[in-house]
């Protein structure tokens, strides 16, 4: 029995996670237009009324999927040590590897970015996450400029924005044009991390 709103039993947490994963996979396969709460509940073995105990609305479920998907990108955060070039190379390499290993993640992230244009709560969440990513990249680039690893006239914030936009675009083509994505990311690494 749950004694407070903040306390979640292990079984409840497992079911909640199962619902998020079922919705995640549904979005990856069919987009948001194909997401049906009743089907998500059935995949987990519950009825849709029970699902609403975990997520009172479809939007609440979508927000949980957005948080889960964006959290999956945490594994691409830069290691704490290394030169700025090494940190940037490691970041790009991990992103590309994750694109290859989890293409569904990038499909869902694209869907979330599109959905965020029509949903202020998701938009705010996506903007916060992107701001953190932008800040990390800007910090790496500024350190590299200060250390003479990149030209002094490189604008770190603009370069960080360009990298994010590039990665978001590359993630769209990972399933349809994997070779082109690999070549593009290799070229970006050469531009930014070699000599």
List keywords for this structure.
2 domains; 9 helices; 195 residues; disordered N terminus; single chain; Arc Repressor Mutant, subunit A; Tetracycline Repressor, domain 2; mainly alpha
Walk me through the structure.
With 195 residues, this protein is mostly helical. It folds into 2 domains: 10-56, Arc Repressor Mutant, subunit A (Orthogonal Bundle), CATH 1.10.10.60; 76-193, Tetracycline Repressor, domain 2 (Orthogonal Bundle), CATH 1.10.357. Helix content is 74%, strand content 0%. The protein is elongated, with a radius of gyration of 19 Å. It starts with 9 loop residues before the first helix and ends with a helix.
Label the CATH architecture of the largest domain: Orthogonal Bundle
Number of helices: 9
Number of domains: 2
First-to-last CA distance: 61 Å
Beta-strand percentage?
Answer: under 5%
Mean pLDDT: 85
Largest sheet: none
Write down the overall geometry: elongated
Low-pLDDT runs of 5+ residues are: 1-10
CATH class category name of the largest domain: Mainly Alpha
Helix content estimate: over 70%
Number of strands: 0
Query: Helices and strands: which structural class?
Result: mainly alpha
CATH fold-level label of the largest domain:
Tetracycline Repressor, domain 2
CATH superfamily name of the largest domain? Tetracycline Repressor, domain 2
The string of secondary-structure elements, in order, is HHHHHHHHH
């Amino acid at each position: 029995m749950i004694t407070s709103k903040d306390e979640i039993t292990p079984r409840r947490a497992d079911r909640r996670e199962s619902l998020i994963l079922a919705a995640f996979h549904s979005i990856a396969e069919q987009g948001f237009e194909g997401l049906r709460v009743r089907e998500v509940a059935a995949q987990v073995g519950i009825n849709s009324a029970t699902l609403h105990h975990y997520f009172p609305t479809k939007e609440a479920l979508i927000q949980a999927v957005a948080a889960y998907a964006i959290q999956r990108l945490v594994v691409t955060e830069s290691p704490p040590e290394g030169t700025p070039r090494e940190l940037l190379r490691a970041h790009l390499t991990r992103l590309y590897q994750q694109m290859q290993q989890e293409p569904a993640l990038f499909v869902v992230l694209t869907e979330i970015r599109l959905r965020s244009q029509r949903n202020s709560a998701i938009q705010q969440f996506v903007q916060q996450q992107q701001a953190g990513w932008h800040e990390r990249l800007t910090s790496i680039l500024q350190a590299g400029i200060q250390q003479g690893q990149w030209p002094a006239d490189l604008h770190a914030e603009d370069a960080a924005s360009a990298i994010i936009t590039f990665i978001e675009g590359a993630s769209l083509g990972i399933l349809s044009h994997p070779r082109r994505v690999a070549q593009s990311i290799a070229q970006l690494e050469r531009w930014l991390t070699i000599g």
